[in-house]
Amino acid sequence: MNQHVPLSDGDALAKRNTLVLAFAQALGGANPAIVISLGGIVGASLVADKTFATVPVSLLQLGIATGVIPAAILMRRLGRRGGYLIGTLIGAAGGSLAAAGATERLFWLFCLGTFTCGLYGSFVQSYRFAAADTASESFKPRAISWVMVGGIAAGVIGPQSVYWTRDLTPSAPFAASFLAQGCLALIAMLVVMRLRAPPVAAAAKTGGRPLGEIMRQPRFIASVTAALVAYGLMSFVMTAAPLAMVACGHSVGDAALGIQWHVLSMFGPSFFTGRLIARFGKEKITAIGLLLTALAAIVGLTGLSVAHFWGALVLLGLGWNFGFIGATALVTDCYRPEERVKVQAANDFLVFGSVAIASFSSGGLLNAGGWDSVNWLVFPPVAVALVLVAWQGLSRRAVPA
Q: Which residues cross the membrane (predicted)?
C-alpha cells in the first residue's frame, strides 16, 4: 500500500527510501573497500608469480560489470527490494568463498570469492538509481547525492573491519576479514527490507521504447560517456598511484594515507553535490568534475613529491564525485518510468565494464611507461566527454521553454 505514495507529499517517501539506501550503501560499500585493501595482499601470498597478485581485485570490478544486467532482470521480476535481498545473500556467499580460499590457500577459490563480491557490488551500485525512483525532478540530484554519502561511512567500516579481524585467524591471514564482509552483507539485508520502492515489475509490463533507441539519444551518449570517463579514469589512476609512490621512494604509509584522503574527497562532497546540481545544472557540475580530473593529471605531471601525489589523488576524488554524480543525474533524464531498470543496467554495464578494463590495464601501463604516461592518458577521454556534455548543455539552453 505504501508503495503508491504520491510524490506531491513533499518527497517524504523518496527521503525515507534515500535514508534506507544510504545506510545500505554504508554497509555494502564496505565490500569493495575490504576486497581492494586485502585482495592483492592475499593474492600475493597464494601465487608464486606476483604478476597475478592483483587479479582478485580486478575480478571484483569484472564481477560488478558482469552482474549489472542479471541484477536488473531480477529487479524487474521481483522489484527493487526483492532484488536487493538476493544481492545481500550473494554478498554473504562471496565473503565466505573468499575466506575459504584464503584458509585453504586456493587461489582460484579466492578469486571466485572476490568475483562473487563483485556480483554483490552490482546491486549496491544501483542504490543511487533506486533513490531517484520515487523522487521528484527537483529532489533527484539530492537523493542520489545522499546515497553516495553512505560511501563515507563505508570508507570507515571497511578498513575498521579489516583492522579488528585481521589477526583472528593466524593460520589463514585475513580470512576473518572476508567473513566480516559477509556478515556486513547480512546486516545490510535487514536494512534493505525497510525499502519501499515502486513496483518495478509492474511498470516493466508496459514495455517502453527499445533499448537501442534509448541508447542512441545524444543525451544518453553524453551522460554515459561522462560517467565512464569519470569512473574509469578514477580507477585507472587510483590503482597506479600507490605503486608509483612506492617506486618513487615514498613509504607504504604515505601511499595508504594518500588513498585515504582520496576516498574522503570522493564521498565527502556528496553532502552538497546535489544542491550544487540543483543550483547550477547537471551539465555544469559534470563538466567541473571532468576538469578536476584533468587538473589531477596536471598536478601528477608537475612533480613526484608526496604533496604532488596527495594533491593529485584529492583532485581525482573530487573530480569523480562531481563527474559521476552529475552524469548519474543526467542519465535519469533519458528514460521513462517503465524503462528505468533496463536503461540503468545498460549504463552501469558500460561504466563498470570500463572500470574493469582500467583496473586490469593500469599496472601494466605503469610498468611500461611510468607515472607520467598514466597521467598523459587522462586528457584525451576527458576532452571527448567535455565536448559531449557541453554540447548537451548548449542544446538544452537552445530549446525554448
A: 20-47, 53-75, 82-100, 106-123, 143-162, 174-195, 220-247, 259-278, 285-304, 310-335, 347-368, 374-394
